[in-house]
Amino acid sequence: MLTRTLLSTTSRTLSHRGFAAAVNPDNGGIVTPLEDFHKSQGGKLVEFAGYSLPVLYNKDNGGVLAEHHQTRERAGLFDVSHMGQIKWHGDDCADFIEKCVVGDVKGLKPGFGLLTLITTPEGTIIDDCIVSRAKEGYIYMVVNGACKHKDMAQFNAELEKYGSKDVCMEYMEETLALTAIQGPKAAEATQTIMPSGIDLTGVDFMQGFDTELAGVPGCRITRCGYTGEDGFELSIPAGQAETVVSALMEHADVDVAGLGARDSLRLEAGLCLYGNDIDDTTNPIEAVLGWTLGGKGSRRRTEQGFVGADKFLKPEGGLMKVSRKRVGIAGMKAPARGHTELYDASGENKIGEVTSGTFSPTLKKPIAMGYVETAHAKAGTDIMVNIRGKMQPAKVEKMPFVTTNYYRAP
């Protein structure tokens, strides 16, 4: 990894390029540091967000369904190296980031993080991301792979406005791998690669720290993920990524899982996929993500000060009314895929459309997420779903569909 010296009273960007030179000739995606590992495990590699990633593994054990159950019941290991990892440095970095995101970054205790949203001047969502206040003057951020370049453009534009202050954005472009181990056995397995003296039972949800993993220095571990299960995201120097994942695979309850299982898991947990369920035409209130701003009277809602705040917050901090809302949908007999039209109970009036849908392996029934007119957004409301030209009855359902198991330290 490249090093650099920070200059005081300056706003600037550093970008480090690492493993991105190679491209998988079969799918055209940039290879991650775990490309060879995926092939050794029978990974079916596809292009996703510009990267070569496994959609599933050909292990004759049930494919996506087996990988889904593996994660819910034991531990699934995912490659999420397509995500963008950014390190922010300087005394003013938290203040600057609060210009770009809706969350209370300054209020984070050192070592803790939050899910937040990057917004446009129109008040819509550029991306959702994890921001962790590693320590005073150092913030670690993970953004979506498909959005990272427009995120960077937004940050650079805001840095130009911010002026000569002490903040530096260091974009770790492919010098770091990122993996996620998720499931009820994730902590037990991850404990086996931790340095002696570190007990993960004391690490809370959304808490993280820099550490060695399987003897590899320069790593970072965060207790989070996007499956609804307990687990960790592991940031690892690219050249040593396979060392760490191979050590995790030695645990009897750990097995690999791909994009297919990750999608069904996150949908069961009621979590948005950027580009499907939220995008730059959606504002946080429509997406029912107002909680990322804090509750009524919270500092971020009253002070505002972030890009686009006036487009969905009232001057006193109240949430503006919206004409549509994101909801869960269940009760139909067949899966409703993206763009499936939704109607009121009479089947006469279109009220919205599905943004994500699948067959839930855990619940053994179709589930979906989508947007409906606000008048029809209450849980329990009867609606109709137009699946391949046939109307099927369904109901608006509260999310998550499956109870989440985020860890809380004793």
From TrEMBL:
Key word Mitochondrion present: yes
Binding-site positions, substrate: E233
GO biological process: glycine catabolic process
Keywords, ordered alphabetically: Aminotransferase, Mitochondrion, Transferase, Transit peptide
Entry's Gene Ontology cellular component terms: glycine cleavage complex; mitochondrion
Record field: catalytic activity: N(6)-[(R)-S(8)-aminomethyldihydrolipoyl]-L-lysyl-[protein] + (6S)-5,6,7,8-tetrahydrofolate = N(6)-[(R)-dihydrolipoyl]-L-lysyl-[protein] + (6R)-5,10-methylene-5,6,7,8-tetrahydrofolate + NH4(+)
SUPFAM superfamilies attached to this UniProt entry: Aminomethyltransferase beta-barrel domain, Folate-binding domain
Domain GCVT N-terminal residues, every copy: 35-293
Signal peptide (from-to): none
Chief localization: mitochondrion
EC numbers, comma separated: 2.1.2.10
Domain Aminomethyltransferase C-terminal positions: 324-402
InterPro entries xrefs: GcvT (IPR006223), GcvT/YgfZ/DmdA (IPR028896), GcvT/YgfZ_C (IPR029043), GcvT_C (IPR013977), GCVT_N (IPR006222), TrmE/GcvT-like (IPR027266)
Subcellular localization, as worded in the UniProt entry: Mitochondrion
Family: Belongs to the GcvT family.
NCBIfam families recorded: gcvT, PRK00389.1
Official protein name in the record: Aminomethyltransferase
The species this protein was found in: Triparma verrucosa
Organism classification: Eukaryota, Sar, Stramenopiles, Ochrophyta, Bolidophyceae
